[in-house]
Amino acid sequence: MNATAASSTQNAALEITTPSDRELVMKRVFDAPRRLVFDALTKPELLRRWYGPRGWTLIACEIDLRVGGRWHFVTRRDDGREMGQHGVYREIAAPERLANTEEWDDWPGADLLATTVLTEEGGRTTLVNTLLFSSQEVRDILIKSGMTRGAGETYDRLAELLAAS
Predict the structure, then answer these.
(1) DSSP letter at 43?
(2) Is residue 43 exposed (0-12), middle (13-18) or buried (19+ Cβ within 10 Å)?
(3) Are 4 and 14 in contact (CB under 8 A)?
(4) How far apart are the C-alpha atoms of 84 and 76, rounded to whole Å?
(5) What Å distances lie between residue 30 and 81, 110, 118, 149, 155, CA to CA?
(6) pLDDT in tens, the chain (165 residues)
(7) End-to-end CA distance of the chain
(8) CA spacing 20 to 30 A to 50: which of 18, 42, 73, 147?
(9) CB 157 within 8 A of CB 10
């Protein structure tokens, strides 16, 4: 699968590729400096303002931003459905790189390693998020579930926050 999810609210796009049978790579350019993007990815007060697709709200956001530190998020949809995610930080090189594990509270064993790399040029930041899934089956289930659409909306919300900052 190679796809581009066009943004509906920004004149931008989320590029999504699957370079191997267990990977999914998302790439998006933001009109903001790298430090601000990194902060938006790691500070609960900023994450609460943008994290999740449209119609979802981040209702719990716990972050222990250190190698070996844990994080836990819970999002709630307008209809009351909740989804929890958690993991451990494996690498932190602010403001250019962040790696963490991720697992869903209601789907044990379906885990991944997310590595986010931020590069800045001319005040614009390119975010590349590489997800390495525990199996091709888990990756494919998530793609079919609409995860890529949700990621596009989530990154649109991040772009809106960054534009307002």
Answers:
(1) -
(2) middle
(3) yes
(4) 9
(5) 30, 30, 10, 18, 9
(6) 444 443 333 335 899 999 999 999 999 999 999 999 999 999 999 999 999 999 999 999 999 999 999 999 999 999 999 999 999 999 999 999 999 999 999 988 889 999 999 999 999 999 999 999 999 999 999 999 999 999 999 999 999 999 998
(7) 34
(8) 18
(9) no
Token pair recorded at residue 13: 């796009």
Which residue type does 156 have? D
Q: Is the peptide bond preceding residue 95 cis, with omega within 30 degrees of 0?
A: yes
Number of CB atoms found within 10 A of residue 58's CB: 16
Read off the amino acid at residue 6. Answer: A
Closest CA to 9 of 128, 126, 158, 140: 158
**What are the residues facing 38 on neighbouring strands?**
none
Which domains, ranges and CATH numbers included, belong to the chain? 2-164 (3.30.530.20)
Distances (CA, A) of 119 to 32, 62, 126: 11, 26, 5
Residues, the chain: 165
As a whole number of angstroms, the distance between CA 163 and CA 146 comes to: 26
